[in-house]
Write a structure and sequence with these properties.
Layout: E1 4-10, H1 23-32, E2 37-46, E3 55-59, E4 62-69, H2 71-90, H3 101-119, E5 127-131, H4 138-144, E6 151-154, H5 162-165, H6 171-178, E7 183-186, H7 189-201, E8 206-207, E9 213-215, E10 218-224, H8 231-241, H9 245-254, E11 258-263, H10 272-285, E12 293-298, H11 307-327, E13 335-338, H12 344-353, E14 356-359, H13 368-376, E15 384-388, E16 401-403, H14 408-420, H15 423-439, H16 442-458
Parallel strand pairs: 1-2, 1-5, 2-4, 5-6, 6-7, 7-10, 11-12, 11-14, 12-13, 14-15, 15-16
Antiparallel strand pairs: 3-4, 8-9, 9-10
Helix pairs in contact: 2-3, 3-4, 8-12, 8-13, 9-12, 10-11, 10-14, 12-13
The structure holds GDP-alpha-D-glucose (GDG).
GDP-alpha-D-glucose (GDG) binds near residues 366 and 367.
Length: about 475
């Protein structure tokens, strides 16, 4: 059976405790499971003189190859171009972009170094699956080194409309380099269409009769493959941990009050400040909810080395302090704000007790927390998902209470509606969402993407394959 080679920013070597919370790590780890293969990426280590060759580890039937970064590479490629230019740009936050030519140079140099190291490891019948915005130019560099294998790319975050992308210096080069892949996959049809528009409107390609992009000799398939979760595993954790010690401590501490929960990496795309304001609005408008609902926000610190993330942290500390100062009683703290990560099985137990799951990103590729919240519910007494229509997950979870995260009053109204929603309506909405989740699991995602990558190559004329 052909080997699968996965490339992603961070390699999750078994037992690696330093790996931060995040959707990609979860999604990719699960996708390597059934096939085995090689996982290639950054070790998480920053060293003065990184060796050219990756560290090799084999564990649990898989091979891992991890490269270290130098402090300068980490600054330019990771903190700089990837997370201070591409991340805000792709999330439509042009005002937060901090573009520097040296960072773009570092980004291209790290991609070139990775390509050089990877080419040594690739076997002729490998299939290569590259993940996310850190590695947009990787296939182009691999092709230059003579790699002819099928290479697919999946973007976990949104792809911006051409009008937005054009704010990036050198954006034509970036979109053009994606055409070196055989398959370019996105979370939603909106993202896929935005990419297609960028290629066509910038004169880099045209559509053939089957809907593929044609650029010179190359033909590139595009598609939407919404990331899913392992629903059964998550539901199992929730059932088991509904009565764990941690959950019991949490439930006891609520003294019978309803729980509303938010769980996000501390990131400005997640809309956490507006969400805090919506909770403040709820307490101000509906006095009956005062003392009767507690909002738990878990927000593990992420990318603390990037300036925009540090200022978000200060903003949230001030907001939580303001709301608690205004409404807290000696025996009730309205907002519990936690910056420490919490293990996913533990979170599953918390979700099961939460009457409201509040997921209000201002832009999000998919958002796995929304799906995990649904999977964790007790079918007899499910909670209510309040979900931003700007999350990719909203395309599937239509039975959630969909909100515009910028409209604080409407988010407050949706929370109120969820808090007073009759059991029958909660069950109906939940059952509809649970059915949808069952059709697009994590396993379905992997299978669909890899099948499309196989098909993208099989139908190519011989001269166009690589
Ligand atoms: C990117 C895209 C896309 C959260 N807090 C903790 C924790 N988590 C886990 C959650 C969930 C994952 O991390 C977060 O996934 P999201 O999808 O919500 O968000 P991103 O990290 O931004 O992920 C996103 C995703 O990639 C997949 O394609 O959906 O749009 O931005 O699984 O449970 N895990 C642990 N402790 C925490 O405190 N252990």
């Amino acid at each position: 059976m052909a080997r699968l080679v996965i490339v992603s920013n961070r390699v999750a070597i078994p037992g690696d405790r330093a790996l931060k919370a995040g959707g990609l790590a979860v999604a990719r780890k699960e996708s390597l499971g059934p096939t085995g293969g090689l996982w290639f990426g950054w070790s998480g280590q920053i060293v003065a003189k990184p060796p050219a060759n990756p560290k090799r580890i084999s564990a649990e039937g898989m091979d891992y190859a991890a490269l270290d970064l130098s402090p300068e590479e980490h600054e330019t490629y990771y903190a700089g171009f990837s997370n201070a230019t591409l991340w805000p740009l792709f999330h439509y936050r042009l005002g937060l972009i901090d573009f520097r030519r040296a960072q773009l140079k570092g980004y291209l140099a790290v991609n070139a170094r990775y390509a050089q190291a990877l080419v040594e490891l690739i076997r002729p019948d490998d299939t290569i699956w590259v993940h996310d915005y850190h590695f947009i130019p990787l296939a182009e560099m691999l092709r230059r080194l003579g790699v002819k294998n099928p290479i697919g790319f999946f973007l976990h975050i949104p792809f911006p409309a051409p009008e937005v992308l054009s704010a990036l210096p050198g954006h034509e080069q970036l979109t053009h380099s994606l055409l070196a892949y055989d398959l370019v996959g996105f979370q939603t049809e909106i993202d896929r269409h935005a990419f297609e528009r960028c290629v066509i409107e910038h004169g880099q390609g045209t559509l053939d009769e089957t809907g593929r992009l044609v650029s010179g000799e190359r033909r590139v398939t595009t598609g939407a493959y919404p990331v899913g979760i392992d629903v059964d595993e998550f539901a199992g954790w929730a059932e088991k941990n509904a009565s764990s010690r941690e959950t019991k401590n949490l439930v006891d501490s609520l003294s019978g009050r309803k729980l509303m929960i938010g769980v996000d990496r501390l990131d400005y795309s997640k809309g956490i400040p507006k969400r805090f304001e919506a909770f403040e609005e709820l307490l101000g408008t509906w006095s009956k909810h005062r003392r009767n609902v507690t909002f738990l926000q878990v927000a593990p610190i992420s990318r603390g080395e990037v300036a925009q993330y540090r200022s978000l942290r200060r903003e949230l500390e001030a907001l939580a302090g303001r709301i608690n100062g205004k409404y807290a009683e000696v025996d009730w703290t309205p907002v519990r704000y936690i910056n420490k990560p919490v293990a996913r099985p533990t979170l599953a137990g918390f979700y099961r007790h939460a009457r409201i799951g509040l997921v209000t990103p201002v832009r999000d590729g998919m958002n796995l927390v929304a799906k995990e919240y649904v999977a964790a519910q007790n079918p007899e007494d499910p909670g209510v998902l309040v979900l931003s229509h700007l999350a990719g997950a909203a395309h599937e979870l239509q039975a959630a209470l969909l909100v515009n995260p910028f409209d604080v009053e409407s988010v407050a109204e949706a929370i109120h509606r969820g808090l007073v929603m009759p059991l029958e309506e909660r069950r109906e909405r939940w059952a509809e969402m649970r059915t949808v989740l069952g059709h697009t699991t994590q396993q379905d995602w992997t299978r669909r993407f890899l099948a499309a990558l196989g098909a993208a190559r099989e139908t190519l004329p011989a001269d166009a394959a690589a």
